[in-house]
Design a protein that fits this description.
This protein is α/β, with parallel strands linked by helices. It is built from 6 helices and 49 strands. The strands form 6 sheets. It has a 19-stranded parallel β-sheet, with no helix packed on it. Strands 20-22-24-26-28-30-32-34-36-38-42-46-48-49 form a 14-stranded parallel β-sheet, with no helix packed on it. A hairpin with a 2-residue loop joins strand 39 and strand 40. It is elongated and about 160 Å long.
Length: about 775
């Protein structure tokens, strides 16, 4: 559409919104402003892409647009400098768009007081030059410091150092100074732009390092510093920019290392790493949103430490790779990498867990002689564990858990004297625990749970005197719990034996494990009573804080364990050291809940987080001492023979789930529906009622004792006679003798009585 003049606008004096965008006004360029000036009520003026050329030169008093909020003259062909009246056109002006309008410099020296409400200023893609730009920014920082949110001056040939006054814009959200000639370092004042979300400084001559304070700009979403002359290391503080969705650092001279975590750097693999060639030896891009394949050029860099974990990388890795110098760590865990497990050389710590690697472990994995830590859990590996692992003499930790490995545990690892951690859990391994396991004096964690291992708990395990974590749960172990676990393993903190076929009593020697804070013996066939000395398990008596230094020392392997809490199977990892749990459920335990177990309370406060005694034959009342519980997260007394009222004080009042007390026919009180008769309630019961209640309780115990005693007595006598022939004969001979003796006794005494009666009658 083409319009030759705008004189018709004069008849629209009440017009508030005018948008002639993309209408050809090239033939009206001489009088467009005069026509618009006849609209005193105008609020928004949009003349973008109208091929306007030239600004009329008016005095400020001539302009009659005092109500304007928005001026959009972008994508026109002014080919001239900005007139001074444009900066004083309206005190209400909010948005001024002059981008891609062929505006020339210099910027006029004018008072910018009228722009006190300016929110958006876009002068990008023009040819303003460096003259007057400092004055413009300084003036805006004085009069618009609280209102300006977007300042776009990119692609203008601006130069010099970045002005310090940039830091005065308190509410600035977007700053674009790209494709200019700015030089020097980043001014410190920029760190005060705490609301900044977008920063484009790419394609300039900015030098120096990225300052650490960049991490304080917490709202940053886009950061582009590419193609400058910056150097130094990329600061770790960039990892604090949790809202970052794009970061470009290409075309600089970074050196040393890159360490960025937990922010969105890029969905593509950052190309700027390829141009970083000056001594780059460490790359950490952990959880930074990369969703791409790993480029081949990355493996050609001389890297000593590379962590790309917790991204969405996919594809395959080179089957064989050798670093020119020994790499300390390669962490490619938590991705979607697939194919065969690669065999890499000159790597000390190799982490590939939680990927999609499949097939067998390479038979010649023992040739990776530099390996100290191998973590490949959570993949789809199958087959047996190669015997060549025994060649890895420097191996400190091996984690093959959560795969589909089968066969026996290798029997030739006894020469791995540095081994500290063995985790083979959640596989399909069979056979018995090999004798060499505890010939390794350095072993501290042995995780063999969730396999198909059989046999009794090998006595060779008692040589594992340094173990602090032992998991043999969910296997097919039988026999009793050995006493030497408590006698020899004094450092044990976590013991998981659930889901086996263990029998016999719980040995009191377990009470000697003063560091024990997790004891899981559920789902076995244990009998007897709960040892009263469990109150001596002092590690359960207080809240444990994470020992940061000790935790860091164990970072080569992340200790984890599956536990049942509130009926749910949960895997604990980072917080495992502070979990307190006793689970004795689903056994054949009997007797009362002893007051001794309540000794776990400190200053009257029980710090035990989970106590599960369900599915046993425990009887009697809930001990009064259990009312000292104040911090327990979960209690389960389901399916026992408990009776009496449920405590209502302290933490018991929060245990509102009735299922934790169900199948205890003698329990009463909330949250169960069965009511208890409160003692000494004169309004409802008199003393006679109390005595009757007491008699009822004694009768309940009498019937319980009779019900339990009859089968025990009957089968202890009759069962032995039925099974043992010699006992049966001896028993019936004994009965015959007794009958004969009683018969003779009767006959003799009857004869004596008769004689006495007759004698009395004669003398009478």
């Amino acid at each position: 559409m083409r319009v030759t003049n705008l004189n018709w606008l004069s008849s629209l004096s009440s017009l508030k919104y005018l948008d002639l965008g993309k209408v050809n006004l090239s033939e009206a360029s001489t009088n467009w402003m005069q026509a618009v000036n006849m609209l005193p009520s105008l609020l928004e003026l949009h003349l973008s892409s109208c091929e306007l050329s030239g600004f009329p030169h008016y005095s400020n008093s001539f302009v009659n647009l005092t109500s304007l909020l928005v001026i959009d003259l972008s994508y026109d062909n002014f080919n001239t400098t900005l007139p001074s009246w444009l900066f004083n056109i309206s005190t209400t002006l909010r948005d001024l768009y002059l981008n891609v309008a062929r505006i020339k410099g210099p910027i006029p020296h004018v008072n910018l007081q009228s722009l006190g409400n300016l929110v958006n200023l876009d002068l990008s893609y023009n040819n303003i030059g460096r003259e007057g730009i400092i004055e413009l920014v300084n003036g805006l920082s004085v009069w618009c410091n609280n209102s300006l949110e977007e300042l776009h001056l990119g692609h203008n040939g601006l130069g010099g150092e970045l002005p310090d006054s940039l830091g005065n814009f308190n509410n600035l959200r977007s700053l674009d100074l790209s494709s200019n000639r700015f030089d020097g370092p980043l001014p410190k004042s920029i760190q005060h732009l705490t609301n900044l979300e977008v920063l484009y400084l790419n394609d300039n001559c900015i030098s120096g390092p990225i300052p650490p304070w960049i991490g304080n700009m917490l709202r940053m979403k886009i950061l582009d510093l590419s193609f400058n002359q910056m150097n130094g290391t990329v600061p770790n503080s960039i990892g604090q920019l949790r809202e970052l969705i794009a970061m470009c650092l290409d075309g600089n001279s970074w050196e040393g290392y890159v360490d960025i975590s937990n922010c969105n750097v890029s969905s593509m693999f950052p190309g700027w790493l390829r141009s970083t060639q000056k001594g780059l030896d460490k790359i950490v891009l952990k959880n930074v949103g990369i969703s791409y394949t790993i480029p081949e050029w990355l493996w050609k860099l001389d890297i000593e430490f590379i962590d790309l974990s917790k991204n969405q990388l996919f594809g395959k890795l080179p089957n064989s790779l050798s670093f020119s110098s020994t790499a300390f760590l390669v962490d490619l865990s938590f991705k979607h990498l697939e194919g065969q497990l690669p065999l890499w050389f000159n790597v000390k710590w190799f982490f590939l867990e939680n990927n999609l690697f499949s097939g067998p472990i390479p038979l010649n994995i023992g040739d990776s002689s530099s390996l100290e830590v191998l973590r490949v859990s959570g993949n789809l590996l199958n087959g047996s564990i190669p015997s060549s692992v025994s060649k890895l003499k420097g191996l400190e930790a091996i984690d093959l858990s959560n795969n589909n490995l089968s066969g026996d545990i290798p029997k030739n690892w006894n020469d791995l004297h540095q081994l500290d951690v063995i985790d083979l859990s959640k596989n399909k391994l069979s056979g018995e625990i090999p004798w060499w396991m505890c010939s390794i004096s350095s072993l501290r964690q042995l995780m063999l749970g969730d396999n198909n291992l059989i046999g009794e708990l090998s006595s060779s395990l008692q040589n594992c005197t340094r173990l602090y974590s032992l998991d043999l749960g969910n296997n097919k172990f039988s026999g009793v719990i050995p006493k030497w676990i408590g006698e020899k393993m004094s450092s044990l903190e976590q013991l998981r034996l659930r889901g086996n076929m263990l029998t016999g009593d719980i040995p009191e020697q377990l009470c000697w494990l003063f560091e024990l804070h997790i004891l899981d013996l559920a789902l076995n066939k244990l009998s007897g009573s709960i040892p009263q000395c469990f109150g001596n398990l002092t590690a359960l008596t207080s809240v444990t804080l994470l020992d940061i230094e000790n935790y860091k020392a164990r970072t080569s392997y992340s200790n984890r364990m599956e536990l049942v809490v509130k009926g749910q199977v949960m895997e604990f990892e980072s917080i495992l050291p502070i979990v307190n749990l006793i689970d004795l459920s689903n056994n054949n335990l009997w007797g009362q809940i002893l007051e001794g177990i309540m000794n776990l309370s400190t200053l009257g406060i029980l710090m035990l987080k989970t106590l599960n005694l369900s599915c046993n034959s425990l009887l009697g009342p809930i001990p009064p001492g259990m009312s000292s519980i104040t911090t327990s997260n979960h209690l389960n007394l389901l399916h026992n023979l408990l009776l009496g009222p449920i405590p209502t004080t302290n933490q018991f009042s929060t245990f509102s789930d009735p299922s934790i007390y169900e199948a205890n026919l003698g329990l009463c009180g909330l949250p169960l529906s069965a009511n208890c008769t409160p003692p000494n309630d004169q309004n409802h019961k008199d003393d006679q009622d109390d005595e009757e209640d007491e008699d009822d309780r004694y009768m309940s115990w009498f019937f319980i004792s009779m019900i339990m005693g009859f089968p025990v007595g009957f089968w202890s006598v009759c069962g032995s006679l039925a099974l043992n022939k010699s006992w049966r004969h001896a028993y019936f001979r004994f009965i015959d003798e007794i009958i004969c003796r009683l018969y003779i006794f009767k006959i003799v005494n009857m004869a004596r009585l008769k004689t006495k009666i007759e004698s009395t009658g004669v003398h009478g």
